[in-house]
Amino acid sequence: MSWELSARSGGAAESYIAYVMGVNDFDVGQMIGGKAQSTDLLVSKNRDIWRIEVKSCSVNRNQAKFRIQNPITDDENLVYAFVYFGIKQKKQNLNDPPRIFFVGSMKLNSLRTKKILNEKTNNWGLEVPYEGNFWSKKDGYTKHEKNWRVFEKKQKSKFLSKNTDETKLINSYHRLFVSNNSGDIGAWNKEIRKRTKEDEIRLQFKAQYNRGNTFSSISRSLGRPLSELKRWRGNMLLPKRK
After folding, report:
1. CATH of 2-151 given 3.40.1350.10, 3.90.1150.10, 3.20.20.150, 3.10.310.40
2. CB atoms within 10 A of CB 133
Protein backbone atom coordinates (compact mmCIF):
# COMPACT_ATOMS: atom_id res chain seq x y z
CA MET A 1 0.00 0.00 0.00
CA SER A 2 1.37 3.44 -0.85
CA TRP A 3 0.27 7.02 -0.30
CA GLU A 4 -0.26 8.10 -3.91
CA LEU A 5 -0.07 11.77 -4.75
CA SER A 6 -3.79 11.92 -5.59
CA ALA A 7 -4.74 10.36 -2.27
CA ARG A 8 -2.59 12.61 -0.15
CA SER A 9 -5.45 14.73 1.14
CA GLY A 10 -7.52 15.43 4.21
CA GLY A 11 -9.43 12.20 3.65
CA ALA A 12 -6.23 10.16 3.55
CA ALA A 13 -5.03 11.83 6.75
CA GLU A 14 -8.32 11.10 8.54
CA SER A 15 -8.18 7.47 7.42
CA TYR A 16 -4.63 7.12 8.67
CA ILE A 17 -5.43 8.66 12.08
CA ALA A 18 -8.46 6.35 12.36
CA TYR A 19 -6.16 3.41 11.64
CA VAL A 20 -3.55 4.59 14.18
CA MET A 21 -6.18 5.07 16.89
CA GLY A 22 -7.67 1.65 16.14
CA VAL A 23 -4.40 -0.25 16.45
CA ASN A 24 -3.77 1.58 19.73
CA ASP A 25 -6.98 0.08 21.14
CA PHE A 26 -9.29 3.09 20.74
CA ASP A 27 -12.86 2.76 19.50
CA VAL A 28 -13.21 5.01 16.46
CA GLY A 29 -16.25 6.59 14.83
CA GLN A 30 -16.94 9.47 12.48
CA MET A 31 -18.39 12.47 14.27
CA ILE A 32 -21.79 13.76 13.22
CA GLY A 33 -24.04 16.58 14.35
CA GLY A 34 -24.46 20.33 14.13
CA LYS A 35 -21.62 22.69 13.35
CA ALA A 36 -20.73 23.26 17.00
CA GLN A 37 -20.12 19.54 17.53
CA SER A 38 -18.79 18.56 14.11
CA THR A 39 -15.25 17.29 13.86
CA ASP A 40 -13.39 14.59 11.98
CA LEU A 41 -13.21 11.66 14.39
CA LEU A 42 -14.78 10.58 17.66
CA VAL A 43 -12.67 8.18 19.70
CA SER A 44 -13.11 6.43 23.02
CA LYS A 45 -11.04 4.33 25.38
CA ASN A 46 -12.03 3.05 28.81
CA ARG A 47 -15.32 4.96 28.35
CA ASP A 48 -13.54 8.31 28.05
CA ILE A 49 -14.37 10.30 24.92
CA TRP A 50 -12.30 12.64 22.74
CA ARG A 51 -12.99 14.50 19.51
CA ILE A 52 -10.16 14.70 16.97
CA GLU A 53 -9.71 17.39 14.35
CA VAL A 54 -7.29 16.25 11.62
CA LYS A 55 -5.05 18.67 9.70
CA SER A 56 -2.61 17.63 6.98
CA CYS A 57 -0.01 18.92 4.55
CA SER A 58 2.51 17.43 2.09
CA VAL A 59 5.19 19.89 1.02
CA ASN A 60 8.85 20.45 1.94
CA ARG A 61 9.38 20.81 5.67
CA ASN A 62 10.46 24.45 5.50
CA GLN A 63 7.30 25.31 3.53
CA ALA A 64 4.77 23.09 5.29
CA LYS A 65 1.90 24.79 7.11
CA PHE A 66 -1.37 23.56 8.62
CA ARG A 67 -4.50 25.71 8.47
CA ILE A 68 -7.20 25.76 11.13
CA GLN A 69 -10.31 27.62 10.00
CA ASN A 70 -12.14 27.72 13.33
CA PRO A 71 -9.56 27.23 16.10
CA ILE A 72 -10.87 26.06 19.49
CA THR A 73 -8.63 26.56 22.50
CA ASP A 74 -10.88 25.76 25.48
CA ASP A 75 -12.19 22.22 24.90
CA GLU A 76 -10.56 19.60 27.12
CA ASN A 77 -12.02 16.81 24.98
CA LEU A 78 -10.73 18.11 21.63
CA VAL A 79 -7.37 17.01 20.19
CA TYR A 80 -5.75 18.33 17.01
CA ALA A 81 -3.95 15.66 14.97
CA PHE A 82 -1.42 17.18 12.55
CA VAL A 83 -0.41 14.75 9.78
CA TYR A 84 2.68 15.45 7.68
CA PHE A 85 3.05 13.38 4.50
CA GLY A 86 6.41 14.73 3.46
CA ILE A 87 7.50 15.86 0.00
CA LYS A 88 4.74 15.52 -2.60
CA GLN A 89 6.93 13.84 -5.19
CA LYS A 90 8.00 11.09 -2.78
CA LYS A 91 5.71 8.10 -2.39
CA GLN A 92 5.29 6.76 1.14
CA ASN A 93 4.29 3.27 2.20
CA LEU A 94 3.39 1.71 5.53
CA ASN A 95 7.08 1.15 6.27
CA ASP A 96 7.55 4.91 5.87
CA PRO A 97 4.26 6.31 7.21
CA PRO A 98 3.35 9.98 7.60
CA ARG A 99 4.41 11.80 10.77
CA ILE A 100 1.66 12.50 13.28
CA PHE A 101 1.60 15.10 16.03
CA PHE A 102 -1.07 15.41 18.73
CA VAL A 103 -1.86 18.73 20.43
CA GLY A 104 -4.70 19.24 22.90
CA SER A 105 -6.91 22.21 22.02
CA MET A 106 -6.05 23.93 25.31
CA LYS A 107 -2.35 23.79 24.29
CA LEU A 108 -2.96 25.19 20.81
CA ASN A 109 -1.96 28.70 21.88
CA SER A 110 1.46 27.38 22.95
CA LEU A 111 2.32 26.75 19.29
CA ARG A 112 3.91 29.34 17.05
CA THR A 113 1.05 30.44 14.80
CA LYS A 114 0.03 33.17 12.39
CA LYS A 115 -3.44 34.66 12.21
CA ILE A 116 -5.00 34.39 8.73
CA LEU A 117 -8.20 35.71 7.17
CA ASN A 118 -10.45 33.52 5.02
CA GLU A 119 -11.60 35.99 2.38
CA LYS A 120 -14.52 33.78 1.33
CA THR A 121 -16.06 33.57 4.82
CA ASN A 122 -14.43 36.70 6.29
CA ASN A 123 -13.48 34.59 9.34
CA TRP A 124 -10.10 34.53 11.05
CA GLY A 125 -8.18 31.30 11.42
CA LEU A 126 -4.70 30.06 12.31
CA GLU A 127 -1.74 29.00 10.23
CA VAL A 128 0.55 26.55 12.05
CA PRO A 129 4.05 26.18 10.54
CA TYR A 130 5.52 22.68 10.58
CA GLU A 131 9.05 23.89 11.16
CA GLY A 132 9.53 25.22 14.66
CA ASN A 133 6.39 23.56 16.03
CA PHE A 134 6.86 19.93 15.04
CA TRP A 135 10.39 19.81 13.63
CA SER A 136 13.54 21.91 13.85
CA LYS A 137 16.97 21.59 12.26
CA LYS A 138 18.61 21.77 15.69
CA ASP A 139 16.47 19.36 17.76
CA GLY A 140 14.68 17.19 15.19
CA TYR A 141 11.08 16.20 15.96
CA THR A 142 9.39 17.89 18.91
CA LYS A 143 7.52 16.52 21.93
CA HIS A 144 4.22 16.62 20.00
CA GLU A 145 5.16 13.66 17.81
CA LYS A 146 2.92 10.70 18.75
CA ASN A 147 2.07 12.57 21.93
CA TRP A 148 -0.29 9.99 23.45
CA ARG A 149 -0.27 11.88 26.75
CA VAL A 150 -3.05 14.09 25.41
CA PHE A 151 -5.34 11.07 25.79
CA GLU A 152 -4.57 10.59 29.47
CA LYS A 153 -7.42 11.84 31.62
CA LYS A 154 -6.25 14.06 34.48
CA GLN A 155 -7.99 14.06 37.83
CA LYS A 156 -9.32 17.59 37.36
CA SER A 157 -10.49 17.01 33.79
CA LYS A 158 -14.20 17.51 33.13
CA PHE A 159 -16.43 14.57 32.19
CA LEU A 160 -17.33 16.45 29.00
CA SER A 161 -16.66 20.01 27.87
CA LYS A 162 -19.37 22.46 28.96
CA ASN A 163 -19.74 23.49 25.31
CA THR A 164 -20.45 19.96 24.08
CA ASP A 165 -23.93 18.77 23.16
CA GLU A 166 -23.70 15.73 25.44
CA THR A 167 -26.75 13.83 24.23
CA LYS A 168 -25.69 14.17 20.58
CA LEU A 169 -22.14 13.12 21.44
CA ILE A 170 -23.22 10.02 23.36
CA ASN A 171 -25.72 8.97 20.70
CA SER A 172 -23.01 9.33 18.01
CA TYR A 173 -20.61 7.30 20.13
CA HIS A 174 -22.92 4.37 20.72
CA ARG A 175 -24.43 4.27 17.25
CA LEU A 176 -21.27 4.57 15.17
CA PHE A 177 -19.05 2.22 17.13
CA VAL A 178 -21.36 -0.71 16.40
CA SER A 179 -19.78 -1.12 12.95
CA ASN A 180 -16.32 -1.54 14.50
CA ASN A 181 -17.21 -4.81 16.22
CA SER A 182 -17.44 -8.25 14.68
CA GLY A 183 -19.28 -11.35 15.82
CA ASP A 184 -22.92 -11.47 16.87
CA ILE A 185 -24.16 -8.02 15.85
CA GLY A 186 -27.55 -8.66 17.45
CA ALA A 187 -25.96 -9.32 20.82
CA TRP A 188 -23.72 -6.30 20.41
CA ASN A 189 -26.69 -4.04 19.59
CA LYS A 190 -28.28 -5.16 22.86
CA GLU A 191 -25.11 -4.15 24.72
CA ILE A 192 -25.01 -0.80 22.88
CA ARG A 193 -28.61 -0.05 23.89
CA LYS A 194 -27.75 -0.92 27.47
CA ARG A 195 -24.76 1.41 27.50
CA THR A 196 -26.70 4.20 25.81
CA LYS A 197 -29.45 3.99 28.42
CA GLU A 198 -26.89 4.06 31.22
CA ASP A 199 -25.23 7.21 29.88
CA GLU A 200 -28.59 8.90 29.29
CA ILE A 201 -29.44 8.28 32.95
CA ARG A 202 -26.14 9.89 33.95
CA LEU A 203 -27.04 12.95 31.90
CA GLN A 204 -30.43 13.10 33.64
CA PHE A 205 -28.63 12.99 37.00
CA LYS A 206 -26.31 15.81 35.97
CA ALA A 207 -29.22 17.98 34.76
CA GLN A 208 -31.22 17.44 37.96
CA TYR A 209 -28.20 18.02 40.19
CA ASN A 210 -27.38 21.30 38.39
CA ARG A 211 -31.00 22.40 38.85
CA GLY A 212 -30.52 22.05 42.61
CA ASN A 213 -32.49 18.85 43.20
CA THR A 214 -31.54 16.94 46.33
CA PHE A 215 -29.81 13.57 46.22
CA SER A 216 -32.89 11.96 47.76
CA SER A 217 -35.25 13.31 45.10
CA ILE A 218 -32.85 12.37 42.29
CA SER A 219 -32.46 8.88 43.76
CA ARG A 220 -36.24 8.39 43.76
CA SER A 221 -36.57 9.83 40.24
CA LEU A 222 -33.87 7.68 38.66
CA GLY A 223 -34.16 4.62 40.88
CA ARG A 224 -30.44 4.72 41.73
CA PRO A 225 -28.84 4.45 45.21
CA LEU A 226 -27.35 7.54 46.85
CA SER A 227 -23.85 6.01 46.92
CA GLU A 228 -23.90 5.60 43.13
CA LEU A 229 -25.11 9.16 42.56
CA LYS A 230 -22.37 10.56 44.78
CA ARG A 231 -19.81 8.55 42.85
CA TRP A 232 -21.15 10.02 39.61
CA ARG A 233 -20.84 13.52 41.06
CA GLY A 234 -17.18 12.85 41.79
CA ASN A 235 -16.49 11.38 38.35
CA MET A 236 -18.15 14.35 36.64
CA LEU A 237 -16.35 16.81 38.93
CA LEU A 238 -19.61 18.50 39.85
CA PRO A 239 -19.24 20.99 42.73
CA LYS A 240 -20.24 19.89 46.20
CA ARG A 241 -22.99 21.88 47.83
CA LYS A 242 -22.64 23.62 51.17
Report:
1. 3.40.1350.10
2. 20
Q: Tens digit of pLDDT for each residue in 109-152?
A: 999 988 887 777 777 888 999 998 998 887 888 999 999 999 88
The structural domains of the chain, with segments of one domain joined by +, span: 2-151, 181-235
Which residue, 160, 198, 173, 194, is CA-closest to 28?
173
Calpha distance 125→127 (Å, rounded): 7
